[in-house]
Amino acid sequence: xxxxxxxxxxxxxxxIKGGVFGRTINHVKAVDDxxxxxxxxxxxxxxxxxxxxxxxxxxxxxxxDEPFAGEVLFEGIDxxxxxxxxxxxxxxxxxxxxQDPYASLNPxxxxxxxxxxxxxxxxxxxxxxxxxxxxxxxxxxxxxxxxMDRYPHQFSGGQRQRVxxxxxxxxxxxxxxxxxxxxxxxxxxxxxxxxxxxxLQRKFQLTYLFISHDLGVVRHISDRIIVMxxxxxxxxxxxxxxxxxxxxxxxxxxxxxxxxxxxEEKRERIILxxxxxxxxxxxxxxxxxxxxxYAFDRxxxxxPKLHRxxxxxxxxxxxxEDGRIQLSELPS
Length: 332
Ligand code: SF4
Ligand code: MG
What we know:
By secondary structure, the chain is an alpha/beta fold. It has twelve helices and twelve strands.
């Protein structure tokens, strides 16, 4: 199958103003030249610690913040070349769900008003059919249609997220970006919402870009996983390869920190030293070198490129490029 979404050399730099004249004196390089694609019907996740650029990537794709540079091809059309009006129309195909649905649901509107409004903006469901469609949608996401005249505060967190999902679905999207969509929920509710997302994917042929800091969550839902660190992609792999045979030292460290993975059985937890450096002046060479237990001279000067291993797995690390050895064999 073809790519539904292709992100090419995407950069998101936010200017820092300063001095007497308020000129741009530097940039926060929140996303720095990343490329990846998502096939139709696929679930691709982006994982990484807060500040790695994963949410920024999601927002840049939708142009919620205008990207600094790059291309975002959706069905072959560069979204960044569309006028504001054309982009608004495209929003029908690309929806986003956030961590806190409460913040994006108008507290003065009932659920049916919220969904009705979303449908009216895109004008795809005729007015007199909307109430019926709303009832169906709410049933589809596991909220009885009889609850459609209730207000957001009358629902639990999990139910509110279901309302957020229903709102995204109300315009028949092709791609849904889920930005920490289950992060605020209790673990048992998380599982229910993840299962719902999977069911909806089958039912409506949806494609997901799933953004999360939580590898445990990502493991439930992903076909492929992208690991980001400080604005860069450090590894891309299918789920099995990533969990069983991670290639990048950062991925390895993330995995070693979650319970009940094979990696943890094989090896002690790797605790990374220090904090994530500032994205204003990221470290030269490999951005991870200030924290990497395996860093050597070359890492401090030369930036590693994403190197293709096999089965589509790619990692940006000089050691991987040099065709070495399993991380578990290296001294720590
Ligand atoms: Fe570590 Fe060097 Fe690989 Fe970067 S390139 S992850 S510093 S070994
Ligand atoms: Mg975020």
